[in-house]
Amino acid sequence: METLSTNRSHGGVQGVYKHQSSETGTEMTFSVFVPDHAEGAKLPVLWYLSGLTCTHANVTEKGEFRAACVEHGVIFVAPDTSPRGDDVPDDEGYDFGKGAGFYVDATQEPWAKHFRMRSYIEKELPALIAEQFPADMARQGITGHSMGGHGALTIALRNPERFRSVSAFSPIVSPLACPWGDKALTGYIGPDRAAWREYDACALIEDGARVPDLLVDQGTGDGFLADQLKTYLLSDVCEKAGQPAAIRMQEGYDHSYYFISTFMAEHVAWHAKRLK
Questions:
Q1: I need a labelling partner for 182 at 20 to 30 A (CA). Which of 59, 229, 230, 233 fits?
Q2: Looking at the record, which segments are called Disordered (predicted)?
């Protein structure tokens, strides 16, 4: 692991790091914020998965999470959204290829070699975090935005023994039912829609997956709400399945980091309560 930068902030250290990933076959960059803590202490970890076109830098620079993480003693980890490099295939659209890994393990060529973000987030990066940082890996939560909200929900639903808490901002709740998901999963996974269900939060809940509870914030002024995000699908499936969920429609907020940063401290506190 190579340290790219460290900065003192809010009573902690914000670092940016890179390493050679065996899962993606590329260098991967990520950020970690570690609050000040007693020597030898281990802190709970909150993962944040970013959305389409983003890198680790978007939330690191605009997420406004550090003060809340210091208050509650939580490490904040922000990975990249996809593999990158000259040898990594790409697409002309913003919603596929680099910057749009969708947190899946691709099975279709030419994507299968490098686009293994599911295994990277579920296996490889957690092992590195446990080795290099004062992280209590028995206390992990996960959140994310948009495509990253999709990632957070599906990863938590598939791994309830690993993640004690899950939340999301403006998540893609059902890739099976939106254009972004249709393009991404057709390209990465192939045309068999049954194989997509493990990457669809609504389908996972329909198929029996559960988490203790979940928190979702969605802005009513989000231009992607009607066609891509379809928050009502998650509300409906949680109600039918008896899955506890606080799904909050926030009046007038859009899809941007102005929205995310407004509610970030609440999400950090919500996770911290469950990670004690």
A1: 59
A2: 1-20
